[in-house]
Backbone:
């Protein structure tokens, strides 16, 4: 099913604590990212919501992981030297262990598992844009402060380039960076001007809570469709016995919903429009089974009080 598509984007400060809590150097684990992916799948939001990590953020996270492992190895070497001198305690430390090679390996494995927003390919043009932003103190750079903001500018420009080329209508940036939160109106306006898409900036780390609250009605509506409306609709459609094609009547042998071609649009907070695609099987003039695959029914749904009300707008085939 199709509807408004939203890209959730994570800044470094949002995922750092998740990585610290994981503390597993065998793999590069980002549990926050994985948990959000699981929730999106659980809520059946895969075609509506997707989560991304900017490449510059991923590079920074990998560097932090490499630094942590170097520190652990250094501590181990120091302990081995101190304790081995006691004679009856032996700590083995493999001097051949290559930290950089190990981190590069788990980095490559993780890259295959997550969706990255790449840094713009034209690095020269990217640098010129960031330099101009830094000199003019355009957001995310701040007037009256040092030129901190280089990484933030790369994130912003990367996400703008991504939004321009994608079919996502809105980007939600999760960040606790002061530059983004303090200059939200300016950054949002710039983002919309450059990409033609809208930007929402959220400072919460509870991304799962954000999804649950924002898409609660959507999830409820999907549940209503799957458990109540679709079974009733299929029952009604299969009660029809004749289809009219080019003024000729044919006997219907079966009706099914093509869920892949069915689309849904959220019109407002309590209103959806559903465009249901059907496959109608019928017996042709030679008593052979044939199919109509372009039958569609458009229904408007409105939630009033606690009940969904459906109003059929269009059905492009004659049945009886």
Residues:
């Amino acid at each position: 099913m199709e509807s408004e598509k939203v890209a959730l984007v994570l800044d470094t400060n949002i995922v750092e604590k998740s990585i610290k809590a994981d503390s597993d150097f065998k793999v590069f684990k980002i549990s926050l990212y994985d948990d959000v992916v699981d929730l999106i799948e659980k809520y059946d939001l895969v075609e509506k919501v997707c989560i991304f990590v900017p490449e510059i953020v991923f590079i920074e996270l990998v560097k932090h992981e490499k630094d942590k492992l170097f520190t652990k190895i250094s501590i181990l070497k120091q302990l081995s030297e101190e304790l081995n001198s006691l004679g009856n305690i032996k700590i083995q430390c493999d001097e051949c262990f290559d930290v950089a090679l190990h981190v590069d390996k788990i980095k490559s494995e993780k890259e295959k598992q997550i969706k990255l927003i790449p840094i713009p390919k034209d690095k020269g043009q990217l640098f010129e844009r960031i330099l101009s932003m830094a000199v003019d103190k355009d957001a995310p750079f701040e007037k009256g402060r040092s030129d901190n903001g280089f990484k933030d500018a790369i994130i912003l420009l990367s996400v703008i380039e991504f939004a321009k080329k994608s079919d996502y209508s809105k980007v939600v940036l999760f960040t606790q960076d002061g530059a983004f939160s303090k200059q939200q109106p300016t950054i949002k306006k710039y983002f919309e001007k450059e990409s033609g898409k809208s930007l929402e900036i959220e400072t919460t780390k509870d991304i799962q809570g954000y999804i649950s609250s924002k898409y609660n009605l959507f999830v409820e509506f999907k549940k209503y469709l799957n458990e109540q409306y679709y079974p009733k609709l299929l029952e009604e459609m299969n009660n029809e016995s004749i289809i009219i094609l080019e003024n000729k009547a044919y006997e219907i042998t079966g009706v099914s919903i093509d869920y892949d071609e069915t689309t849904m649009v959220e019109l407002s907070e309590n209103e959806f429009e559903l465009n249901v695609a059907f496959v109608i099987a019928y017996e042709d003039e030679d008593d052979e089974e044939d199919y109509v695959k372009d039958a569609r029914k458009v229904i408007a749904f409105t939630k009033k009080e606690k009940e969904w009300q459906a109003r059929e707008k269009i059905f492009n085939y004659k049945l009886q």
Summary: The chain has two domains: 6-57+116-214, 223-319. The longest helix spans residues 55-84. The mean pLDDT is 87. The first strand starts at residue 6 and ends at 10.
